[in-house]
């Protein structure tokens, strides 16, 4: 008899029926934010008086930061202090090659809020020619940053994603008017 027929039978774990068990969802933006958070989590105060702005060193030459630490701090100081209570940090990230390939797709993301931190992503240099840098900076500071702070304000309410995004969009309209 052939050794091929002497198998051990069906696999016994819960994922053995799927041939995609080792696949993970492609999320280049969340992956960079998660790595930055893990790197700085122990160094960030749990309840700071004012959120720390963490600027990561540039890793890829294909990206640019449209705003700097002082501009982010200035924009945060213009917000009501009660909106910043519990916000641990704002990260200015560096960008990755995977993000560069993903910027013109539906995966593109300018910022996210996660674990009481705001993450602002670097902008691809080759796409910056379509925007004036000042306009892009205003967009990041007055729309993206404020939108993510709105998620921080709304963090305790349990609602679906659509409702939370609606709240954050309305928050931007009220704060930036």
Description:
The chain is α/β, with parallel strands linked by helices. The chain has five helices and six strands. Strands 1-3-5-4 form a four-stranded mixed beta sheet, sandwiched between helices. It has a two-stranded antiparallel sheet with strand order 2-6. The longest helix has 21 residues, at 133-153.
Attribute tags:
177 residues; alpha/beta; four-stranded mixed sheet; two-stranded antiparallel ribbon
Q: Which helices and strands appear, and what pairs or packs with what?
A:
Elements lengths: L27 H13 L11 E4 L7 E2 L4 H9 L11 E4 L4 H6 L8 E4 L2 E4 L2 E2 L8 H21 L7 H16 L1
Parallel strand pairs: 1-3, 3-5
Antiparallel strand pairs: 2-6, 4-5
Helix pairs in contact: 2-4, 4-5
Give a nutshell description of this structure.
With 177 residues, the protein is of the alpha/beta class. It has 5 helices and 6 strands, in the order αββαβαβββαα.
**SS-based structural class?**
alpha/beta
According to DSSP, the number of beta strands is 6
Uncertain spans, ≥5 residues at pLDDT below 50? none
What is the mean predicted local confidence, pLDDT?
A: 84
The shape is globular
Strand content: 5-15%
């Amino acid at each position: 008899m052939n050794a091929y027929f002497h198998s051990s039978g069906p696999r016994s774990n819960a994922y053995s029926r799927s041939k995609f068990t080792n696949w993970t969802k492609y999320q280049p933006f969340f992956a960079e934010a998660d790595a930055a958070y893990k790197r700085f989590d122990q160094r960030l105060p749990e309840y700071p008086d004012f959120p720390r702005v963490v600027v990561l060193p540039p890793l890829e030459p294909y990206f640019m930061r449209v705003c700097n630490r002082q501009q982010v701090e200035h924009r945060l100081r213009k917000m009501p202090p009660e909106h910043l209570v519990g916000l641990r940090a704002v990260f200015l990230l560096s960008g990755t090659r995977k993000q560069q390939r993903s910027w013109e797709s539906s995966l593109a993301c300018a910022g996210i809020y996660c674990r009481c931190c705001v993450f602002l992503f670097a902008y691809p240099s080759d796409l910056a020619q379509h925007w004036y840098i000042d306009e892009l900076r205003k967009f990041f500071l007055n729309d993206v940053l404020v939108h993510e702070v709105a998620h921080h304000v709304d963090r305790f309410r349990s609602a679906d994603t659509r409702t939370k995004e609606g709240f954050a969009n309305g928050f931007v309209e009220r704060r930036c008017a």
